[in-house]
Amino acid sequence: MSVVHDRLTILRKDPATSTIDRINTDLVPPNTEGLKVIVSGVVLIFLTALWTYLRFWSHKQNGRPCLIEDWFNVGAVALFYCLEATDFVMVLVGGLGYHVSELQEWHIVRLLKAIYARQFLYAASLGLIKISVILMFMRTFFGAHFMIAAKATIVLTVAWMLLIVFVNLFMCHPINVYWDLRTPGGFCGDQKAAFASVGIMDIANHLIILMLPLPMIWKMGVEIRYRVVTVCIFTIGILAVVFGAINLYMILQIDYTDVSYTAVQTTLYGASEIGVAIIVSNSPLLRPVFDRVLPVCRIEVSTWKEKGNDIVMSRKRKSTKSSGFTQMIGESREDLELGNMGAHRARRNTHITVGKRPPSRDDDDCSVHRIMVTSETIIRRDKGEL
Known about the structure:
The protein is an alpha+beta fold.
């Protein structure tokens, strides 16, 4: 997240830098620091677009309609792209990455206007992602205590979003002091304290959301591969918290007299925090993708039981491959069209009966044992899947 800087100090001219050495073009050629912002922004745009596409592709595979949390996610992604566009403007028009002494005054004004707009985009995008994740948890898990905790977390998230809005609206008076630093009679409050409180609340909110579903997940009988995926998702979620913490540290360490240069790190980590949060919010819904990428887990259990004079072996095979049948060949060798069944769980039970066979006309030796094999496949769909 960005910060607003002390009035007038940013516009003090450096006597060691002549006017000739300053950049005079409207479009500022990006330097190494500016290229970091552009390259990381392009990578984040690609990754978030890919994960969002896979989210809706997974919904299509499961035959599941789009729900309210999906539209929250789409809104967050759209606002994130607006934030990245603002970052590009900060680099190409505001001179982000250069020292203040290398830029013209109008570059600084444009940069501060972009920073001001970016703060609203930051709060809206990250806030919508958090609410989307909480709504997804509420649709997945049940329990009175869990629902109360989830609703309280939504209230906390909305309060965090409103706090950023209020800080931006009332920190400086009048508002145009944010970018017009020569406004007579203008003043700003303690910006470091305000944005430190916002950053601390953001990190606490992240941690609460990450911890919210853990008690419910560990109570469920989840297969090993899905537990591994869940651990990976939460690991990436912790990475978003780390980016938020680093971003807060960079805000507190920023040099207000050289905003165009020292704001690079806050721009990078702030965008990365949102991008990683979008990836994490989409990952729990990508089960069809994981089923295709990860090997299918088959579990076989064999048990022997005595039934009268027979010994029966029951073998159960469980498969969780999420693919659909397209046709089946019946006993009459005819093709039976079933269509795509979508995501499902298949369980195959094999019963083997071992015992003495009854005597026949051709063979009176009833000591010869017989083996009867019966196999059945049970297919069921998960709740909410078609």
